[in-house]
Design brief:
The protein is an alpha/beta fold and 283 residues long. It has two domains: 4-132, HUPs (Rossmann fold, 3-Layer(aba) Sandwich); 142-279, Rossmann fold (3-Layer(aba) Sandwich). The chain has ten helices and eleven strands. The protein has helices spanning 15-22, 45-66, 82-92, 107-112, 116-123, 151-164, 197-208, 222-232, 256-260, 264-271; strands at 4-8, 32-39, 73-79, 97-102, 128-132, 142-146, 171-179, 189-191, 213-220, 237-241, 276-279. It has an eleven-stranded mixed sheet, sandwiched between helices. Strand 2, helix 2 (45-66) and strand 3 (73-79) form a beta-alpha-beta unit. Helix 3 packs across helix 5. It starts with a strand and ends with a strand.
């Protein structure tokens, strides 16, 4: 299910560390990895040469650090605007997953700072694993999926089961937040799957795959509760469905209303204390 991974590196952050951790998962060992570094355009030729040399070193260091099977790793050094080049290369190699570092900027800050990860998240429909600079990357054993009735949540469930299928002592946490926009939060409740129709169906699917699973619920603002649950339950990786709400006639344009709006996925990617894998269903 994840056979081609695009790792965008800048020489900073935990993206390489995240991929190295992922590579420990049996299901990922078969995947081919493309490591990409984008050199921003420079006005002076001397500056351009220096940036190309620096980019080559960044790629070499990343590949050396990853220490993967050479037959499964390739590198690309390309010039251009990083936020567009990452999307272009992801399409070229037909990536099943994009891994990027993220500074975890708030939405308006992201726009003003020209955040690459924010724009790639908006422009690409491919699953995207964001790793903030201020989090600790752990071995993946405990994966949480935020469940609702959406197709993207079901897709996240499939991804989680794919990752967990051969992980010894792996555990899937199915979380459902009952929306209470007044902000009245509840305690985390571990429940039997039959007590919640949404979790019951997901639990049955996990059982077919032989994955150890538990179900939890809470109530409150979904974005805040998902982050709290992930932290309280010591989750190693959070999977969140992100419905594609971009205008159908302007797929290549960033949805500024969404950037400035109260997007659940934006809140979670910024505030979660663990790596977040955001996934949409195919267009």
């Amino acid at each position: 299910m994840i056979e081609k991974i695009l790792l965008a590196v800048s020489g900073l952050g935990h993206a390489e560390e995240m991929l190295k951790t992922l590579a420990e998962i049996p299901a990922i060992k078969r995947a081919k990895v493309t490591v990409l570094h984008v050199v921003p355009e420079q006005t002076a030729a001397t500056a351009m040469t220096a940036k190309w040399e620096e980019g080559g070193k960044i790629l070499a260091n990343a590949i050396q650090y990853l220490d993967l099977d050479p037959s499964k790793v390739s590198s690309i050094l390309r010039q251009g605007d990083p936020k567009y080049v990452v999307c272009q290369v992801a399409d070229e190699i037909d990536a099943d997953l994009i891994i990027m570092g993220s500074r975890g900027l708030k939405r308006l800050q992201s726009i003003l700072a020209n955040s690459v990860s924010q724009y790639v998240f908006q422009l690409s429909s491919r699953p995207m694993l964001l790793v903030k600079d201020d989090i600790y990357v752990k071995s993946i054993r405990r994966i949480m999926v935020a469940m609702d009735n959406s197709e993207s949540a079901q897709y996240c469930l499939k991804l989680a089961l794919f990752l967990l299928q051969d992980i010894k002592e792996g555990e899937l946490i199915l979380a459902h937040v009952n929306t209470d926009l007044r902000g009245k939060a509840s305690e985390t409740s571990e429940i039997k799957p039959e007590q919640d129709p949404i979790l019951s169906a997901a639990f049955s699917e996990a059982k077919k795959h032989g994955v150890k699973t538990r179900c939890v619920t809470s109530s409150g603002k979904p974005s805040e509760e998902i982050c709290r649950l992930a932290e309280d339950l010591n989750v190693d990786l959070l999977l969140l469905g992100s419905p594609d709400r971009r205008p159908s006639i302007a797929k290549s344009l960033v949805d500024i209303d969404r950037l400035l709006g109260s997007s659940l996925s934006d809140f979670v990617r910024i505030n979660a204390t663990c790596p977040v894998l955001l996934a949409r269903t195919a267009d």
